[in-house]
Write a structure and sequence with these properties.
Strand order of the largest sheet of chain B: 1-2-3
Largest sheet of chain A: none
Order of helices and strands of chain B: HHEEEHH
Order of helices and strands of chain A: HHH
Oligomer: heterodimer
Number of strands of chain A: 0
Number of strands of chain B: 3
Radius of gyration of chain A: 14 Å
Shape of chain B: elongated
Number of helices of chain A: 3
Shape of chain A: globular
Largest interface: A-B, 20 and 23 residues
Number of helices of chain B: 4
Helix content of chain A: 55-70%
Distance between the termini of chain B: 72 Å
Radius of gyration of chain B: 31 Å
Amino acid sequence: MSELMQVPIALYEILALAHELDHPQAKQISRLAEDVITVTLADPDALVKLQNAAGNGYEIQFSRTESAG
Amino acid sequence: MADDGERVERIRPDPLPASPLAQKPSIKEQKPEPSGQRAPGFGASGEADNLVRFPAPEKPSRGRKRKSVEETYRVDYVKASKNTWAFRIRWMEDGGREPVIYVSRVNDKLFKMITKGRANYAAFKRQLIASHKSGAVRQSVRVDAGSNRAL
């Protein structure tokens, strides 16, 4: 990955790969990839914000909640 | 409601004829103050010599209406080869030049996935433009379309 604008396409690539997986957790991966794509495309500045946050020394952590299935 | 009606009658510049309500002696008729156009010595119709115009840029009467910077960016795709599509960003520069940046090549399956659904594809395009404009792209013109990337 070299440029920020390639991230949305890379997310679709992940989704396409997940569709091809023959694994019991492939559907979970697909759902996660779809959710990430939805969130990313909902805000045009989402990736820019992430990049700026990382540049300013912040990091983003994902943590599993109790309600997660 | 009646008060409002009276107020409307008072400020109406062209009163209705023979309206008893409008001719009440208690209602003070409000005439608008003469504006600059109607002030003595500044009449636009009679004394054109005294008219002083502010220097304002004249609107172009001909030619296409200029688009804003936001509108000049657009995302489209071209068929790069068999079973391969390339997404690209283009924008209009002052001299009429349209530089192009190729974002990435995708195969047919991925292309259909991305362009499926009008709203989804519109959001995808907005995201590409926003990412490009953020300054993440340091190369001014990229023409290889990421051909070294595995599909």
